[in-house]
Structure formats: structure tokens, C-alpha cells
Amino acid sequence: MPDQLKIDYDTLNTAKASLQALADGIGPLFGKGLFANLGDPALEGRVTDVVGDEFVADALSVLYSNAHNTMTQSVKGLNELAGAFGSVSDAFAAFDSQLAQGWSISDANLKLSNYQHDKAQWDYKQAHIDQCVLPGPDGSLPDFCSATDPGDPPLDQTISTPHGDIHTKLTLDGNGNVVMEESSVTYNGQTYYTSTTFDTTTTGSETTSHSHTNTTYPDGTSVQSDVYTKNDGSGTMVVTNSDGDQVTYSRAPKDASGNQPDWVQTGATSSSGSGSGSGSDSDPSTPPEKPSSDNGHNPS
Fold first, then answer.
1. pLDDT of residue 72
2. Is residue 265 a contact partner of residue 283, using CB atoms and an 8 Å limit?
3. Residues of the chain scoring pLDDT < 50
4. Is 266 part of any domain?
5. How far apart are CA 220 and CA 290, in angstroms?
6. I want to staple 271 with a disulfide (CB 3.0 to 4.6 A). Which of 103, 213, 215, 244 is the partner?
7. What is the reported pTM?
8. Residue 73: which domain range?
9. Tally of domains in the chain
10. Would you tell me how many other CB atoms lie within 10 Å of the CB of residue 131?
11. What is Dmax (Cα atoms) for the chain?
């Protein structure tokens, strides 16, 4: 059954535009001009004077009486139906965009990891180039001698499709570690943008990794999350949406078998200033959407 659930965004968006165009075409007919004025009480008894013919006046009056309410409701219904098609399209597009962003970031990090391996091989070859001059007793050269210059790191990539683009960019620090990931998915003129920055702080033997993620949706709304994790896997997470609604989570350390517990909601505060204590993260009153538990892709 799930494999039969397929959404054609183009069809939904076309339907939305067609319904809105139909509504826009009907609206002026009943909202402006002489026909619209037939329902004006000030014209009662004077329609014949306005149109110049009694039979035409009667016909217009009957048409207005029969059509006005029906067509007014039709315009409302067409706009509501257009909105419904648009909502479904936007919801599924947003879900797919999140998947596309996650995939593109993972793909970018994998390509960077492969590049760093190839670069290490190339650098080692340059440092031991003398071993790549003459074959050994068995007539072969060391494996690293086949390394080639990988060039610049693959930090910026764009995947283009007939309906939009997926753009990914990685930013590295001086040691080659990823300190920022950016991804944008553009479809049908709508753009979903996500950026994540990474940093770490060390106090004694305790290292705390921090990631800050900001996701902006096509309608201008946004969700931000700050995740702090320690060496033992324990951590806290704060998720805030553009209205100021905030939800906090905590996670216990890994168990003896190395299994990582799930995030558990510990509190929520709405933009109106009211708060709530700990509770289930499935509580429908929770304002922001809970992010995934992978906390970005930075290896720290």
C-alpha cells in the first residue's frame, strides 16, 4: 500500500493555479460592473431604466437571483480547494526536501571523506617519492605510488533536476574539519534552506560538542536547534521556532553495551510566556517539531 502513495507535485500545483484562475475569473463577474449592481437595493425598480429594455432587465434580474449566491459560494469553494491542493503539495514537498537535504549532506561528507583519504595517499607519495622510482625485487611498486593528485576538496556541489536544484556547501577549518554544512532545495520556485555549524569546548578530560541548526521554510518560518553532547553521549537539546515557542530535551549517557538512549522532552515554553514541565515528546501541544537525533554530520 505505501508504494502506491505517490504525489505528483506538478499536477497539484497546476490544479491549484487553475482553480485560482477560475475563481479569479468568476469573481469580477459578480463583484464589479452592471451585473454586480443588480443586487444593489438602490437600483430596485430602476433596472429597466439602466438597461433600457424591460425584458432584458427581467432576464438579468432572474439570472442574478439564481446565480449570485451559487457562484459566490463557488468562488469560495474553488479558493478553498486550491488551498487544499497547495497544502498537500507543500507538505509532501517539505518532507521530500528534508530527505533530499539529509541525503545531499551525507553525500557531500562521504565525498569529502574519500577526498581526504586520497589526499593523504597523495601526500604520503610525495613524501616517499624515492620509493616510487624503481620496482622492488618482485617487479612491483608500493601501492601508494599509484596515488594521483585529488585536486581541491569537493566542498560545493549542485544537483540539477527538471524541476529544481539541490545545493550543498561544506566549510572546513584549518585542520580540515567540517565546521559548517549548508543545504538548499529549490522546487517549483520554493526554497528550503538548512545550515548547521559545529564547535567543541574542552574542560579537562570533558569535551562538549555543540551544533546549531537553522532551517528556513518557503513561507519564511524557521526552526532552530542547539544540541550539546558530552563524551559519554549524554546531552541537551533546545528547539525554537520562529514564533518563539521552545521545547527542551535531554539524553542519558550510553549504557554498558554502548547503546544510546533516545531524546526525552523535559519542558516546553510558548511564545506567550506560559511553560510546561516535562512530558512526552508526542504531546500535540509541543510547538516546534522535534529534529532527528543524529545531531548533524560532524564527526565530533
1. 64
2. yes
3. 1, 41, 276-300
4. no
5. 19
6. 244
7. 0.64
8. 1-154
9. 1
10. 14
11. 115
